[in-house]
Every structure is written in C-alpha cells, then in structure tokens.
Amino acid sequence: MEQHAGTLAHQIGRAVVTKVPELSLTFPAAKLLPGWETGGDDVGDASLTLNVHSWLVRVDGLTVLVDAGVGNGKKRAVAAFGGLDTPWLARLAAAGARPEDVTHVLLTHLHTDHVGWNTVPGQGGWVPTFPNAVTVVPRLGYEFFTSPTGRASPNHDMFVDSVVPVVEAGRVVFVGPHEAEPLPDFTFLPTPGHSLDHSSILLRSDGREALFAGDVLHHPDQVARPDLCSMFCERPDEARRSRLRMLDLAADRAVTWFSSHCADTSAGRISRTVDGFAWSFVLEP
Description:
CATH class: Alpha Beta
Largest sheet: 7 strands, mixed
Strand content: 25-35%
Number of helices: 9
Keywords: Hydrolase, Metal-binding, Zinc
Order of helices and strands: EEHEEHEHEEEHHHHEEEEEHHEEE
Number of domains: 1
Organism: Lichenibacterium minor
Structural class: alpha+beta
InterPro entries: MBL_superfamily_lactonases (IPR051013), Metallo-B-lactamas (IPR001279), RibonucZ/Hydroxyglut_hydro (IPR036866)
Shape: globular
CATH architecture: 4-Layer Sandwich
Protein name: MBL fold metallo-hydrolase
Radius of gyration: 18 Å
GO molecular function: hydrolase activity; metal ion binding
CATH superfamily: Ribonuclease Z/Hydroxyacylglutathione hydrolase-like
Distance between the termini: 26 Å
C-alpha cells in the first residue's frame, strides 16, 4: 500500500475540480477483474493498482466534496482500511479547503472507502468532520444498513461510525433511486450494480460536463472491456448495464470522467472505437 501526496486541479466551466488523494492498493489482475486473463494477455504476475481519493469541487460559492474516502483510525474488517493514519486532511487543505469550508458532501454509495472522512474522533465518539456541510446520502443504502440484513453485514461498522453520526447531526439530505438534483448543477444518476444504492454524479457548468462515476468502473481496462466486473461488484449484470450507459454518455457528450479508483491522474475521457470504447488519461489539468 502506497500513500500519495500532491493535488491536481481541472477547470470544468466555472468549476475547479481537485483530487484529494488518500492511498493506493495493488491487486493481482485476475483477482481484481475476474475474467481479465481471457483478454489474450500473458497474465503471469500481472497486477493492477487502484487509488482511493475524493474530489473537491469549488463552483459558484459552493465547496463540494464527492465521496469521503476511508478515514483515519477506524476498525475495519478489511485490514488495508483499518487503523489508517494518512495526511488526508492536510491534502484537503492543500487543495484549498478546510473542513469548515465544505458546504456539501456527495456520497455515490455507502461503502467503506467512500464514507470514512465523514467523521473524526470527538467528544463522546465519532463526530462530523465537516460541521457546516449538508451530506447527500443514498436512501437505498441507508435503508439497507438499518435493516436486519444490513446490520449483519461485515461492513456495517462503517455505517455506524461514518454515516450514523452525520444523520444524527441533522444535516443530511436523502436521494432516492431515481435521477435527482440535490444542489444546482449536480445531478445524481442511478447506476446500480456495484451496489444497490450506487449513483454517478453529473456536473454541468458553462456548457461543460464532468462525471463523478464512482465505482461504475475500478480500472481503465474496463473501458475497452466493459464486460469485466470487479471482485467488489454485488450485481455484475446490473453493473455492466450501468457501466455501458455511462460510457455511452461520456463518449457522446465529451464528458470528463473523474474516477473513484483509477490511478495516475484518475481523470480521463472516453472515445468510441471500432470495437467499443477507449480510455485516455487527462494528463494535464
């Protein structure tokens, strides 16, 4: 596991989008993307690297955080996410925001690596990191983790320490499993499959568009091979349909794709090829 430093900003119309890195993880390719070895390459010891990060968006007086990473000092069933001590808050500051500056936190879905920085240790337990923020929470995820099945799930711990305190603070807006615009120019597009509550978020500004795709894909190899689902996807067939729908949207509308887990700059563009789609990294902001 490697921790990252540095920030990278992109101009999308009036909006400035900056990556806030947290950590990176390396997986055997055929484990991360089952079926990857059938692509014709010599698998051998091939590995793929994923990043975990958030996106900070500053536009029209709003300071918006898209997803909230893993967080520090949390007990987790997955060892790679447990007891972290990263300088993520310092990286957020380097990107131009203090916790109290954040006006909105948008959660693509309720998974361990997307909600953790919602809370930090405080008096009596975990307290909201962003005291002035409205947090947009997927209703289906909230309903699942408050159900008997959800309470028995291995990742219920993240719901207890990283979602419940924000809900109890009373600064939450829920979005349902349908297209919604909880704040101007940010539209939630339902993209279930990776999880039942997953949405991607489309930003529009001055005629330009950006897609915060969440976990619609985990690695650029899935652009050329959208049939591949990650080991983390709960409903593969549904995930494939959502991925193809977002790839179509991004290719047809020249959308800048801000990924949740692709490495390098983590931002790219989608183009059409004879066989389907191709990914190209945005190398310069």
